[in-house]
Amino acid sequence: MTTKQQHTLLNILLVDDDIDDIYFFDIALKELPVSAHLTIVNDGEQLMNYLSENLEHLPDILFLDLNMPRKNGFECLEEIRLIEKLKHLPIIIFSTSFEQGVVNILYKNGAQYFIRKPSDFSQFKKLIHQSLIFVLQGNISQPTREKFVLTIENS
């Protein structure tokens, strides 16, 4: 990573209702060579409220869990992509669920990448880091379907 990238402050929005996942995400982020500000909301309704209140100061990247109370990640993704100012917000789906039908829907609905939450912390950290590198390099357009599921092998 270049010096410029190390000094760029990334505004990251994490949407997850699992306290352990939030904790591990925060620890991983602190261990990475990236300057970042992390904002956390715990469900889809909080997310949509946050985004509507911050349209002029959007995050650089959104990590979105699928299975949450009140409004799930599927609903949020669809709603976000219908709002003009949010259409290009980079969204990484971050979930333990991994069904091909679900992944296909998420791809079709405009998520940039899908990350299956690994149980191994080292892999978890590498996948977050790769996602952030994409943002820092300005390379966050949706990849081909074959590369949509981000893994250590294709990162």
Could you explain how this protein is built, in words?
The chain is of the alpha/beta class. The chain has a single domain (3-147), classed as Rossmann fold, CATH 3.40.50.2300. The protein has 6 helices and 5 strands; from the N terminus they run H-E-H-E-H-E-H-E-H-E-H. The chain has a 5-stranded parallel sheet, sandwiched between helices. Helix 2 packs across helix 6 (121-136) and helix 3 packs parallel to helix 4. The longest helix has 16 residues, at 121-136. Mean pLDDT is 88; it is low at 1-6.
Write the layout of secondary structure elements.
Blueprint: H1 3-7, E1 9-15, H2 19-31, E2 35-41, H3 44-53, E3 61-64, H4 73-82, E4 91-95, H5 100-108, E5 113-116, H6 121-136
Parallel strand pairs: 1-2, 1-3, 3-4, 4-5
Sum this structure up briefly.
The protein has 155 residues and is of the alpha/beta class. The chain has helices at residues 3-7, 19-31, 44-53, 73-82, 100-108, 121-136; strands at 9-15, 35-41, 61-64, 91-95, 113-116. Helix 2 packs across helix 6 and helix 3 (44-53) runs parallel beside helix 4 (73-82).
